[in-house]
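Holo prediction — zinc ion.
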Amino acid sequence: MLEAAIALSQTRRKADLDDLIEELRIPSISALAERRADCVRNAHWLGDRFETMGMKSQIVDVDGGNPIVIADWNEHPGKSHLTIYGHYDVQPVDPLEEWRSPPFEPAVRDGEVWARGAADNKGNHMATVKAVEHLFAAGGPPINLRFVIEGEEETTGIALPRFLRTHGGDLETDAVLIWDGGMDEDGHPTLATALRGLFYTQLRAKGAAVDLHSGTYGGVAPNPINTLARVIGELKDRHGHITIPGFYDAVRAPSPEELAAWKQKDARYVETVKGMIGAKTLEGEDGFLALERAGSRPTLDANGFIGGFTGQGAKTVIPAAASAKVSMRLVPDQDPQAIQAAFEKHVRELTTPGVEISVEVLGSAPPVTCDVDNDAARALREAYRQAFGKETALIRVGGSIPVAVDFQEAVGAPLVISGIAQADSAIHSPNEHLVIDNYHRGIEAVIRFICGLAEG
Ligand SMILES: [Zn+2]
């Protein structure tokens, strides 16, 4: 089975690439209402593929959002079950003039395919689709399978979260492969061990009832800008340490394996980031590697500040109000609700009489932990070893993948978060491209992964 499917992935390389190119021609931009018909067409294009290979597919409409493609195959009762996640929608393409070839006329140059969606996410999910096709052609997959391919990832739509929350109980599975990532800067396959969560607030500071003259009332009137700026400043000390009592209590330390790998590449990472962001030096919490600060440590940042007079010239005013956006990236096992309570209490204590500061929560998403000590993670690492001849880098994802939270909470199976896009694939930018060799090796890796799950 394994050998036969891999042989097919080698003899059918041209067809595998042609099929990806066919999907890349569909301009499925979810952000543009006028592209909705293309999104629906892309959903049906995928649904037809799943039917042709022998899976039962349905196009699910949720409240008028872009349809979700679900495909199931359950011919091995009692054996393990894998869910594969991807998205068929793509980012808008502007600025169009910066593209070296039109975004929806895929071009093959220098061993890469250039088109919008080549990496994010069509190249990724087509590698899984082709792997499963080859398994069917070689006699049928050795385990039960489900595909969930959505069309609103790039717009953080509500269709898939709603679907998962409503049908979570019917979606029992042993592992969810979220195949929407890529390789690290050194070209190693990756496996995410955690994703940071987010806690986003707006602080509103109120002083006097009206704006006041700073000559008449300066020295006696409370100043919400001064106070709010000081409060925000005091949320972190000079060593980058966040001062909210209990803030770090639940933070889980990285594993020795993660830490050892990060130590080896931290200096390179620092240089890469300095170049990318154009900063002379990086900032952060004393005593931690840059890779820890960017992935396994929680953060706190002011994102915006509004208040007082900001027009031309001078206006001698003590403003009545000021407000600021302050957000935190949370890590396992921090609990957004506990953080909220500690944060509100701390802000209340830091303010001074005369200025009242209220905290409004604008958004909250818990951090996600991806255990790598399970059959699925082990099978994927072994598959990568065989298909790419490389060890897998364990990475912490600094941002959040909202759908991972939905899968984790509604479905509850281990999450395996990875993908084949090379680090410089320019997703969301002009000239998105995918290394074609990664695509073919990715197909092989998914075949090996699925067969590995059958043994595990
Ligand atoms: Zn994207």
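READOUT: Residues 91, 120, 154, 427-428 surround zinc ion (CB under 6 Å).
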